[in-house]
Amino acid sequence: MTLILENISKKIQHQQVLKNVCFELNEGEIVGLVGRNGAGKTTLFRTIVGEMKADFGRIGLDDQDYVRTISVHDQLFYVDMPENWLAHYTPNKIKSILSLSYKDFYSDWYDERIKQFNLNSKKRVQTYSKGMRALFTIIVGFASRARYVLLDEPLDGLDVLIRDQVKQLIIDRVNKNNTTVLIASHNLIELDTLVDRILLLKDGSINMTFAIENNNNIKKYQVAYDNDEMLAFLRDNGTIIAHVGHIVTVVFSDFDESIGIKLAGSDFKFIEELPIGSEDIFRASFASEAHAWQKELEGE
Amino acid sequence: MLRAIKIYGKMKAPQLILIAFLGIAVSAIIIGTNFIDSGTASGGDNASELSSQLMIILQFAALLSFYNDKTRHLDAWLVTQNMSRRQILLSKIFWLIIAPIAFAAMIDLLLTITMQPSDWTHALRSNIINGTFSLLFASLVLGVSLVIGPIWQKVAGSIYLIVVFEAITHTSADQMLSRQYFINDLMTSVLAIIGISLVALTISYYLVEHVGVDTEDEPVRLTYLKWPVVIFVFLSMLVLQLNAGGGMLDKLLFPAILSITTFIFVFKPKLSWER
């Protein structure tokens, strides 16, 4: 089963939020969705599940029109985070509701997870901490046994230990049920250890799809320069991530031989290539914006 | 459809139970008060009074519960389920309009049969009249609530529409009761009111398919209804003013103010003195 998005466009209050968004989600994949604040990640999720109506385009489950084919709607699970209806009910009540709405609802697994994470099943979810609410939503999502689970900032507010358990839980469900998970997150370091590939939402469309190992032209270097001032070519060709004294960490979005030659020149006391992560690719994708901000800050 | 009714009923069960308890408590209070005031537990007028008061209170509670769906983000999730927007609407009509009316009528009839068995036909008649009027007003409120986004504007819009509707048609349950219609007239009136309610519900049924979650905060959620809403406010207020006394200028002033206010809310024009 494949979830297909074809040219999804959506305007909200005369503003184009999504513009010809196209991508596919295959069975058993964990895919990250990243973009800057207000890029349209939540709007995209809401449009996929039918909360919002796309102005244009098609959302399909294989050859079926997902929005119009109501009988397949239990194949997708999504609730708005952090505000959603779950907060007003107890886990026991939620189980009875979801058992009606998802025909394959996994009651035993749900109960086990509630016990595993010490969630009080008799208290309303709104009494939980922010992190526990997020965790509970993830449990509900996978207990629904929907083929596609859409999670919006799922690791937000979770402490390190719970985060590790949640990541394990996601991987376990994907492996055992072949569930496909689409995760919107700002935490790119977390995504690196979880996802198969990342979709970058920029200017309302999927600007690029990447897996870290496939980005050979993006490089990250730490360099120490000799001169009093940092060389302009670093800023012109890359995104400065850190600058302490004469030591600069820079990401080059389009690394080529000429940059390599300049780095190897006598202007630098030492250079070291660092491993890149999704965060670096994200920075590189927004290099022009970052460059403009840097110039603006310097101007001030 | 049955699935939609079941899921929505399950989700609303705590509130529906509260509404039912409210109905029972209100009945006890009204009967108790009547008993103390007149020394009788129930009578012909009391039957109609109880059913109308009970229906108003239960409909009001159901309306609050209906608005509560928005604050709890319930609608946003329901549309992602195996049910269409129209099925969700019908479920709401069932649980929040028909069920409270039926429950209020049932309580009233049961009490009348228990306490004043000879009055049961009168009670039945008053329940039919009150029930149809409740259905009519609930249908109008539903339509307004569907088209208007923010909750306070839904409330204001609903009150305005009911006031206008009552004033223009000059109908109310009390008037019908006081006229002592014969059964044939009653049936005709009831059928006419049910007909109008069904038209209002059909319009809502059509519109619900076209409103998305993204317009929840828009004063008028459907672009093609923005101007009709402003024009309706002007014309309805004008009709009300024409029925009242005063000069022509006075009659035009109030509709103009109200429609300009509506226009500002609906179209949000940016007013600025800067060039």
Automatic annotation (TrEMBL), chain A:
GO terms for molecular function: ATP binding. The keyword Nucleotide-binding applies. Keywords: ATP-binding, Nucleotide-binding. Residues 3-228 form the ABC transporter domain. Pfam families: ABC_tran (PF00005). PANTHER family: ABC TRANSPORTER ATP-BINDING PROTEIN YTRB, SKFA PEPTIDE EXPORT ATP-BINDING PROTEIN SKFE. This is ABC transporter ATP-binding protein. It comes from Leuconostoc pseudomesenteroides.
TrEMBL record, chain B:
It comes from the Bacteria. Keywords: Membrane, Transmembrane, Transmembrane helix. The chain crosses the membrane at residues 16-36, 51-68, 89-113, 133-152, 186-207, 227-245, 252-269. This is Beta-carotene 15,15'-monooxygenase. It comes from Leuconostoc pseudomesenteroides.
